[in-house]
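Dear colleagues,

As part of the handover before I leave the project, I'm documenting each prediction I ran so the next person doesn't have to rerun anything. This entry is a single chain, and its sequence is reproduced below.
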Amino acid sequence: MGPASQSGDSPTERGHDCGMRIADEISALLAQAYAEGPPLRVRALHLPPVSPPGGKEGEFAALELESGQLGLCFLLLDQALSSIGALTDAVRGIDAREMVAWWADGRAAAASPARAALGYAAVNALTRRVFDRAGFAPAPARDTIGGLDPRPGESVGMVGLFPPLVKQVLARGARLTVLELRPDLAGEREGYTVTLDPQALRGCTQVLSTSTVLLNHSFDGVREVCRAARRFVLVGPGAGCPPDPVFAQGVTAMAGSWIADPQALIQAITRGASWGHSVQKSLLPRADYPGWAALLQRAAGTG
């Protein structure tokens, strides 16, 4: 996900008021999808080892529904990792629909980052359940930069420092500005700039953003300063919410991690191992998305 998400600032400090608009819209779509029916209970919470080998495999947990879907959540935000273990038994059997408010309510999220992370995992799991019932899946990604097409001299923005992707952008001859939360990462680098100032992205014409901006309720603020961008892509394992609200705000694609083998992913997460072939990089362009209403109609047709 990139170290942009590893900050001591609370979700409230990063934009509670402006960030709640998108959270409310996402919550409303899930409420529409699950207005009726029996509880959608949590089967288990799967956590990485306390001291994982390193890499993103130690950064995420998986919330498993009794229906089999998994929702991923990022743990290296606001000390969520240090306190989430205490919730392992508490979440078992809870209706996942109730957990959405743990994330969507900004004040509740600020009070308990671990519960907020689990609430967002519930969002991702419930969204995946709609996709599964509708028989819908995004296409495999053709590259690792979310379909961006950096051109020589073009100003490209990145929200969250993704070192492997930096090289790809610079190799195309583009000028890169990276927005970070960590002061120790700020400064001029060879070929690009790391800044703490969101306004530095205002002139970027293409932007690649970590999906953690949804988890920490900073999406609306970041998106606002990037209105000039002709392409704005959300990327990362957390890019699994209903896409309609973010597409309506000008996001051009969601580049996520499609879970192909849930049981293999659970084993990988709990062992701190590579996710391997348990997930597939996916890309859902706005133009290829049928819309939430259409997906609900398809899901209803499956019984």
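Residues 1-19 have pLDDT under 50 and may be disordered. The chain has two domains: 3-139, 140-254.

All the best with the project,
I.
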